[in-house]
Amino acid sequence: MKPKNNHSLLPKLRFPEFRDAGEWEIKKLGQLGELVSGLTYSPEDIRDQGLLVLRSSNIQNGMIALDDSVFVRPDIQGVNLSRPNDILICVRNGSKSLIGKNALIPEKMPLCTHGAFMTVFRTNTAKFIFQLFQTEAYEKQVSADLGATINSINGGHLKKYKFYIPKLDEQQKIADCLTSIDDLIAAETQKLESLKSHKKGLMQQLFPAEGETIPKLRFPEFRDAGAWEEKKIEDLAKRGSGHTPNKGHTNYYNGGIKWVSLADSNKLDKGYIYDTKVEISVEGIKNSSAVIHPPGTVIISRDAGVGKSAVLYSGMAVSQHFIAWCCDKSKLSNWFLYFLLQILKPTFERIATGSTIKTIGLPYFKEIRITIPSINEQQKIADFLSSLDDLITAQTQKIEALKLHKKGLMQQLFPSVEEVEHE
After folding, report:
1. What is the pTM of this model?
2. How does residue 322 score in pLDDT terms, banded at 50, 70 and 90?
3. Among 49, 260, 308, 417, which one is most buried in terms of CB atoms within 10 A?
């Protein structure tokens, strides 16, 4: 990239001690460190234990995660060991969106290398360069190299990437500032994961295990209430249908009626569903089997994300891929049903059939039976779990606010890329 005009190479925000330090310089990445290529290995080289091989799946949210680890025999030939403070970069992947994603290898890492679809950038200013790799300048240069069909970038490309660079002491100051925010985000993310684990553990105790009728954990006022009872959902809630209006009629769509479809799968399993990607019209309702289900209706996907559920925040229609239950409030709490469906999700995933798209047929949902306590105990469980969800939501929002804060800071701590262009 190069300046398009005579704008000075200065950030909008600068630490006081550097306000008279002059302009930043434009440098190629190849001037700032070296690239270390990854290891090519075969299935025969893989071991249960041995030398850890870092791959794209080990980069999660800008950090190294070891949940999905692969090991190769320690004496494998052609290995370049990765080091703490190397920046791991994905340079080739079937998913274009993953190209360029990166993470800083932490100090306390086991001995490791990295796979052939990865590279590491090694530099004495790793923490600053890592932050550079989170900027729009980096993202734009990666995007420019990928083009329409190419799913890789090579070392030659990376070495030519250009960035605004200040002197070393200012680099360190910026890196320290942004790293401290990263550390805070990581700590708050750990709190979020702990909350989710706590909720998951409680749910496993608040609901009876498969084949049992009494949960391990019960609120004091219900400890002598006896066993839960098995009943058909059909006897506790009115089952509703879904349908897709004819897409050949444009007047059936964009009419302001929210319509839950498979396009909304990413909004499920989060309690209420508030909005939908597609809306249909009154004409669409009149000329199809779609109906508007009332607020509070519990829905579950029976294919393509089978077992995912939600509660309708307002009146909405659904596609034929969903089952909808409007609970009899005197017999079944809708939020209790929602949380119970979350517990049963592994069961739904197990019984779904189909070679390409897993599906559960309508007859199954007509006959499905659930084990429930009294309506008062249902409500107590639902209220308790909803309060945990509120804590999880608040913690999620706190993390998002920190990320926004960091993004805003970065836009001011680094010179704008609006006045530069990629070579």
Report:
1. 0.87
2. very high
3. 260
